Amino acid sequence: MFSKAIKRIALAGAVLSFSVAAQAQQEIKIGVIYPLTGAAASTGAEMKHALELAADIINNGTKEAPTLPFAAGGGLPNLKGAKIKLVFADHQGNPQVGASEAERLITQEKVVALVGAYFSNVTATASQVSERYKIPFLNPESSSSTLTQRNFKYFFRTTPHDDLFVHNFFQFFKDIEAKKGVKVKQLGTFNENTLWGNETTKLETKLSQEMGYNVVKTITYPAKSTQLTSEVQTLKAANPQVVMQSSYLGDAILSMKTYKELGFSPDMILANNAGFTDTEFRRTLGKDADYVITREVWSPDLAKNNPLIKQVNDLFNSRYKIDFTGNSARTFTGLMTIADAINRAGSVEPEAIRKALIETDIPGSKLIMPWKGIKFDAAGQNTLGSGILVQIIDGKYNTVWPFDIATKDVVWPMPKWDQRK
After folding, report:
1. 260-284 residue pLDDT tens
2. Do 129 and 114 contact (CB within 8 A), yes or no?
3. Superfamily classification of domain 163-296+388-419
């Protein structure tokens, strides 16, 4: 009697263990850390939507983009159809919160990898935590060059970095002089003062000196500023031809309003992405957003060269009533990349995932980005990414550089505020 009871308990335990194992096999937790509240909440919302779309495609498939990886749906085939489960964390734009949320996701939620975190300074702290716990961290958007100069083994970045982007600015100056006769010499820099903005300022100053451009004024302002009047007055007094600007959403909008209020009209505002590529930037400013040029990594008009761009953007638009931006398109690509690595690893063990990331080789034809592909170097940096420049005209982003893939001619200079319709 006693032995039969023991057998029943053992059998029940075995069934329970099998059930737990089966459930674990059905679900792969990936932690995602983004600014879901605060000044960049709308940016975070767009990136959250991109993650949700990517996970839905992996788990359930899509007929609208049949050549996209995982378009067949059914989860990860090499893990018996295991489904991706996203576990969201809000870093609020705060590096300390990002670090604590990374630790919570790893230790309490038991995620197998982390994706994030848009703000470079938050990515820096959150990825330090993942490195300590030896959990892979996939960074789709943060562009501070130093992030891949830390000798980390578990950090991988799919986007190009600011060293490349700032070089693109100066190549654009050379190209526009050679092909359009526009001579740029006097520059001003106007950047927020966190890791990203400060590093961008250093790169812009260094390359200006090396390439013979004169920086007439360098201004770094406090992140999350609520007024920029004195900074813009100082910049206006220096009279730069071109303002090279790095701002997140709140300060990008604030600076444009202040430029108009004070009648500051440089020949061009050349922005370093971020707030200038958020849907809310154009929605809030309306026509006042027009003519700004910003570096980008994605634009819907590039669909003429890659049908996958339109197919996936249409899916995104039908669900959320907005188009992808360079931010959300990179976030989508980041989740597809980590899913590809986990699938190839055939395992949720961190070392196996890390090894698969090292071996990543995704061709450009499988991406919605206008890149040659995704392949990481020893530092974890994708070596096949590239940048473009887009200009806002009639409320839409248009590719204007490189000139050989441009869909519209660049409008230069920007019309003065009192000459706009």
Report:
1. 999 999 999 999 888 888 889 999 9
2. no
3. Response regulator (3.40.50.2300)
User: Torsions phi, psi of 325, nearest 5?
Assistant: -120, 180
* Under 8 Å between Cβ of 241 and 414: no
For the chain, the straight-line distance linking the first and the last C-alpha, in angstroms and rounded, comes to: 92
Structure tokens at 127: 């990825």
SS3 165: helix
Quick: pLDDT tens for 30-87: 999 999 999 889 999 999 999 999 999 999 999 999 999 999 999 999 999 999 999 9
Judge whether 352 and 345 are in contact, CB under 8 Å.
Answer: yes
Euclidean distance between CA atoms 115 and 331, whole angstroms: 9
Instruction: Delimit the domains of the chain by residue range.
Output: 2-160+304-374, 163-296+388-419
Q: In angstroms, rounded to a whole number, what is the distance separating the alpha carbons of residues 9 and 12?
A: 5
The side-by-side arrangement of strands in the sheet containing 186-192 is: 214-221, 186-192, 242-246, 268-271, 293-296, 388-393, 396-401
Q: Which CATH architecture has domain 2-160+304-374?
A: 3-Layer(aba) Sandwich (3.40)
The string of pLDDT tens digits covering residues 108-163 is 999 999 999 999 999 999 999 999 999 999 999 998 999 999 999 999 999 999 88
Q: What is the pTM of this model?
A: 0.84
Token pair listed for 137: 């961290």
